[in-house]
Write a structure and sequence with these properties.
single chain, 263 residues, TIM Barrel, eight-stranded parallel barrel, 11 helices, 8 strands, globular, binds the ligand O=c1ccn([C@@H]2O[C@H](COP(=O)(O)O)[C@@H](O)[C@H]2O)c(=O)[nH]1, pyrimidine biosynthesis, EC 4.1.1.23, OMPdeCOase_dom, orotidine-5'-phosphate decarboxylase activity
């Protein structure tokens, strides 16, 4: 097999650069061109210190055809720089549609990872696991999200335990069923918000084989904590430190995160 997301990421520093592009925050008459140049320079300058680059699909989709084209170019550029890619698209649908979502992401970009929503159940996630195994990829299942409203459903009592821990039980079983080459890790990871440190600790113990994508650094107030298999992700605070594109400030911020995550 060629590229392998799990092996690559497990061997890299634990910081993920989130790319949530906002053309309105870029100067000049051609903000999209400025954005693309900035994203390329930023990925290049931070590459050695990153686990992966996470592209938030919503921000590209919101730009229409130009956004899709930009996404394709940036994903390709990340691969040229040797950076593993996470498609943050939070897909989830009945099996036949899940297959198409998997073709559009995991199969199209071998060695990449995709975020998925478990609400439709196991049969709806199976196509993603199969595509990840066939393409050297990985899947991150939403388990406990970083937003305050995650409590509305994810914390509901489900037979004496919060629902997110029930989801974690299933994720643990899927993780066993879909091992990766890089022991002990699996192709089935979890999304766990860094804004919930207690849940993060509980889930780390419950999911020993899953890499965690941990959003919430910076803008959402999560405190960086080192830990095995924790891939901490920052978007606004790293891509737009101080609320604007700024390569030097982004380098400083990445360095500060790296120091904090090294323990
Ligand atoms: O629970 C979740 C899952 C995904 N996200 C995504 O991560 C980034 C966070 O952006 P920041 O600017 O670093 O706050 C964004 O793309 C979200 O869609 C999340 O925040 N929480």
């Amino acid at each position: 097999m060629g590229l392998d997301f799990v092996s690559e990421v497990a061997a890299r520093p634990p910081l993920v650069l989130g790319v949530d592009p906002r053309p309105a925050w870029h100067p000049g008459p051609e903000p999209l061109e400025h954005l693309e140049r900035y994203a390329l320079e930023l990925m290049e300058t931070l590459a050695d210190g990153l686990a992966a680059v996470k592209f938030q699909y919503a921000f590209f989709e919101a730009l229409g055809g130009a956004g899709w084209a930009l996404l394709e170019r940036l994903v390709a550029a990340a691969r040229v720089l040797g950076l593993p890619v996470i498609h943050d698209a939070k897909r989830g649908d009945i099996g036949s549609t899940a297959e198409a979502y998997a073709r559009a992401t995991l199969a199209r970009w071998p060695g990449s990872a995709l975020t998925v929503n478990p609400y439709l159940g196991g049969d709806a996630l199976e196509p993603f696991f199969e595509a990840a195994a066939a393409s050297g990829g990985a899947v991150f299942v939403l388990v406990k999200t970083s937003n305050p409203g995650s409590a509305d459903f994810q914390d509901l009592d489900a037979g004496g335990r919060p629902l997110y821990l029930r989801v974690a039980e299933r994720v643990a079983a899927w993780a066993e069923a879909w091992p990766a080459e890089a022991e002990p890790w699996s192709r089935v990871g979890a999304v766990v918000g860094g804004t919930h440190p207690e849940a993060l600790e509980l889930l780390r113990a419950a999911l020993p084989r899953s890499l965690f994508l941990v959003p919430g650094l910076g803008a959402q107030g999560a405190e960086p904590r080192p830990g095995a298999g924790l891939l901490w992700s920052a978007s606004r605070s790293l891509f737009y430190p101080g609320g604007r594109p700024d390569l030097a400030a982004a380098r400083r911020q990445a360095e500060a995160y790296r120091r904090a995550l090294a323990g």
